[in-house]
Amino acid sequence: MLSWNCCGMGSPTTVRRLREIQSNISPDILFLIETKNPDLAVEKSLEWMLYPSHFLVSPHSPGGGGLALYWKNDVDITILSPCQNFIDTQIKQDGSFVDIRSFMAQCDLFDLRHSGNFLSWRGKRHDHLVHCRLDIAMANGAWSEVYPHSHSEYLRFEGSDHRPLLTILDLTKKQKKGIFRYDRRLKENEEVTSLIKEAWEFDKEESVEGKLTRCRREIIAWTRIKHQNSQKLIEENRQKLEEAMVSQDPDPTLISTINHNLLLAYKSEEDFWKQRSRLLWLSLGDRNSGYFHAITRGRAAINKFSVIEDNDGIPQFEEEDMLKVITKYFDNLFLSQETGNFSLVQEALKPCISTETNTKLTLVPTEKEIKIACFSIHADKAPGPDGFSASFFQSNWNTIGPLVISEPAKNGGLQTYSSMHSLLQDHC
């Protein structure tokens, strides 16, 4: 049932709002207050709503009053005593929820506390758009004792005619702290570029590793201050668009600007998840954010251990115990052991690289070779242990490149090549 003080049926805005309500909600019962028009005028203004039954109370004066009650055939309404101020009715409705309520009573089930718009499904019935609550999270008494603070949340419509229903079990559970990953969206941010340059040049005597640590710390601090979160930007622009669209004095230029900003926020979100998904063959601009997100979540699920067996076949569930099992396995795997076949292996090996070729391979790489090697790595490849990907080095090469090249050269020879090779492997 929808009740609304319409403040006059003669206003085009009132009729337009009713059309919107009918299209989005299609209430079974519609009650209007302050129609301010004769009965014939009200009937003519609302005949397009196609309600089969209605009851009207004429306004008490040309400038005020008037009631209108409309209802559908599947609602049984009896008018008891109308007057200028109210319409007293008796409403009968079939008990279509008897079975589910009996089931809930027998199983000691009740609705969890919920937030958000609980009209979780939208669809068409004949020519009408219907919103109803089809999705419900329920629990019993035993559940509420274990999870006393659990509740559910109805999320927004997107990708389905059902709202996702999120059930949160433990409000006190802390979210696991994420590890640092350089966000390649920052490569085009002039403020971040300047911040990296300042951090890199802060201490001339600092090593490359120390400078990278300083850059990482500054980027994290900047991100927290600026709240560079594309989801937050999307939500803010959605809210601005909603306010602009429902404004009584809409500004087309403002609406166009907000839509443009929202599009940029979606593009930024897609860019971020494309990087996280490690898929390189899908192009940006195809609205694949959901797919990239699913790939990332799926990879995280695959990479997560829930149980592991040790050498004795005993399952280990705790993270610390699983870490010990893995460490012990690889310690034993790479442990050098004496064998009697060393001479046999030596006899089987034949040199495939000439002395001349070996000399070339062990030469100290030139500045050009190092830069080519770094820029040949795809910007979306997985980052090194410090969280910096090739995108970081490529976009800030003018600042960081000279020291990245010169620092290993202090040792010279083969050690220089090994150090640079390791650096490129770790970061590029």
UniProtKB/TrEMBL annotation:
SUPFAM superfamilies: DNase I-like (SSF56219). One of its GO terms (molecular function) is catalytic activity. Residues 2-97 form the Endonuclease/exonuclease/phosphatase domain. This is Endonuclease/exonuclease/phosphatase domain-containing protein. It comes from Arabidopsis arenosa.
